[in-house]
Design a protein that fits this description.
This protein has 137 residues and is mainly β. 0% of the residues lie in helices and 61% in strands. A hairpin with a 2-residue loop joins strand 5 and strand 6.
Length: 137
């Protein structure tokens, strides 16, 4: 179990980690500066949400912990953990096709909607970590 006690942090490898699904009450950190952007995280056991420069990036229901979030122009990758299965929504390029790989297995291809949102589920058990990779095709 490796929840992010400080709610959001920069990792040594240049990625960010955020979220604490163990919290019973909503907690948030605003104005976290990383790589020229300003991040805001809201997290607790029911939901985890991340915004960059006021724009949606990530949301999970129920709450999760995300480790090593790496976003590039056509790719997003991270490791997610939580106490039970989670529905995850991420913001990508609108009306584009993406390949999703969950825990090393291809989970298929999905197209984002006009808002750029992509939703999928991950199967989690208590403190199990699952690697997620989303790449534009």
């Amino acid at each position: 179990m490796s929840v992010v006690k400080e709610l959001i942090r920069t990792e040594d490898n240049g990625t960010i980690s955020f979220g604490n699904y163990e919290l019973a009450q909503k907690s948030k950190v605003s104005d976290f500066e990383y790589d020229g952007d300003v991040y805001k995280v809201k997290t607790y056991n029911e939901i985890t949400k991340l915004e960059r420069n006021g724009m949606f990036v990530y949301e999970s229901v129920p709450g999760t912990t995300v480790l090593n979030l790496d976003t590039e122009e056509n790719k997003m990758s991270f490791t997610v953990e939580g106490p039970k299965d989670a529905q995850i929504t991420v913001e990508l390029e609108e009306d584009a096709q993406y390949k999703i790989v969950i825990d090393g297995a291809e989970a298929g291809q999905m197209k984002t909607n006009l808002g750029g949102k992509l939703s999928f589920s991950v199967e989690l058990e208590q403190a199990e970590q699952v690697a997620v990779s989303i790449e534009r095709i």
